[in-house]
Specification:
Shape: globular
Helix content: under 10%
CATH architecture of the largest domain: Sandwich
CATH superfamily of the largest domain: BT2081, beta-jelly-roll domain
Largest sheet: 9 strands, mixed
Oligomer: single chain
Number of domains: 2
Structural class: mainly beta
């Protein structure tokens, strides 16, 4: 019966979306909503003071050739049009001008696209977790459930490396990552694992809180039990440009695991599980420095800093209950003793759960290529960083304990 109701909801949504657009007044909006250059380190979208102008300013690393860049994503106001196919533009050594015409075919705005070289950032922007903005999906639409908005660490219209899977959360009716105490007085990010009983029909009853550097690109074909290619990782483009070699990372956290470990079928995972699955939840925190330019077919791991623990850390009864921790970066392949103590640090992880994909723009969508990971040669430079926080270490497998919670703030690299 539940499956029938779900199907009726999907069908009614599709029918509603087919209402003739001429029923509504034609829009005069002609804004650039999203304009990303592959590998950018900063991005600002500014509506001009003059009504018919706008500016997009993108920063890229100093070693990037401004004559040979790739537009990663581009979105306009609904039904607006550009006079140029931006995905074919490679040369940004000089300002590029776009004429964006609104749906009404009368209103237009001239947008200037300026790409500049930027110094390598020693810290990730918005990593204090004290500044948040309304979350938008990869099409530039605000993400909300009813009247409740999702939020990302960042500032409106300014590039932030931080995202979470808020768009997928809209299907379950709650957001698993939130600014706390609230968005106006944000002091930390709170990640919570929650039970979504209806998800058991699709083997995804556990929804973990996950915050990461990268982008979430929603595509229903990758949803468990719905799509033809169920693989939620194919919706996460992990990583952001980064060019430094810190010695360690310092941050403040508190963590408590939930009491009962469950799987995606909403069944308890007991000790001595036949599949050797963990019977107690753990949080996941890792920082992975990579080089992605050495080999276009592989991601080379330069260094790793990692914490996975099932122990309670800090005090949730006090707003001052955070514990400061310092995670050292291990450059190159960890030694045998380290891998014995922390087997999840090996290439691919304990259960082959560490799978990464390269997202290649293809018009309005993306081609995804699975990227094997290898250890980088000694002395390799860094050009990318993956940061992952999760309230349940195996949340992407839909295992976790409801009410597991990880709070994090004040992330700082030590050099």
């Amino acid at each position: 019966m539940k499956k029938i109701i779900f199907s009726l909801i999907i069908i009614s949504t599709m029918l509603f979306s087919c209402v003739d657009e001429t029923y509504y007044q034609e829009s005069n909006e002609c804004n650039i909503v999203v304009f990303d250059i592959l590998g950018q380190v900063s991005n600002k979208i500014i509506e001009g003071k003059v009504v018919d102008t706008g500016l997009v300013e993108v920063g890229v690393p100093n070693n990037f050739n401004l004559n040979d860049l790739n537009v990663h994503s581009f979105r306009l106001s609904a039904l607006a049009k550009s006079d140029k196919d931006v995905f074919k533009i490679k040369d940004f050594s000089k300002d590029v001008y776009l004429k964006i015409t609104a749906e009404d075919n009368q209103t237009f705005k001239i947008w200037k696209i300026r790409v500049i070289h930027s110094e390598a950032l020693f810290q990730l922007p918005f990593s204090s977790m004290k500044e948040w903005t309304i979350a938008k999906d990869d099409k530039g639409n605000e993400i909300k459930i009813g009247s409740t908005y999702a939020y990302f660490p960042g500032r409106e219209n300014i590039f932030s490396p931080w995202q979470h899977s808020a768009k997928a959360n809209t299907m379950v009716g709650f957001f698993s990552v939130n600014p706390k105490p609230d968005v106006q007085n944000a002091d930390y990010a709170s990640l919570q694992t929650k039970l979504y009983p209806t998800g058991a029909m699709m083997h995804s009853a556990i929804v973990a809180g996950g915050l990461y550097t990268g982008r979430f690109i929603f595509n229903s074909i990758h949803l468990p039990g719905i799509g033809s290619d169920p693989n939620p990782r194919k919706m996460v483009d992990l990583g952001t440009p980064f060019q430094n070699k810190p010695q360690s990372v310092r941050l403040k956290i508190r963590y408590k695991p939930g009491l009962i470990m469950k799987d995606g079928d909403n069944k308890e995972i007991l000790p001595n599980d036949a599949l050797n699955r963990p019977s107690k939840d753990s949080c996941e925190i890792y920082f992975m420095l990579q080089n992605r330019s050495l080999d276009p077919t592989k991601y080379n791991r330069v260094a790793t800093a990692w914490l996975r623990t099932s122990e309670t850390i800090g005090d949730f009864n006090s707003e001052d209950g955070f514990v400061e921790i310092n995670l050292p970066f291990i450059y190159g392949q960890p030694d045998a003793q380290t891998l014995l103590e922390k087997p999840y640090m090996k290439i691919g992880g304990v259960r082959g759960e560490l799978i990464y994909y390269k997202f290649i723009p293809n018009g309005t969508t993306y081609d995804k290529i699975e990227m094997p990971e290898v250890y980088a040669p000694i002395g390799s430079e860094v050009d990318n960083i993956i940061v992952v926080f999760s309230s349940s270490a195996y949340g992407d497998m839909f295992w976790g304990a409801p009410d597991s919670r990880l709070d994090v703030k004040d992330i700082e690299f030590i050099y």
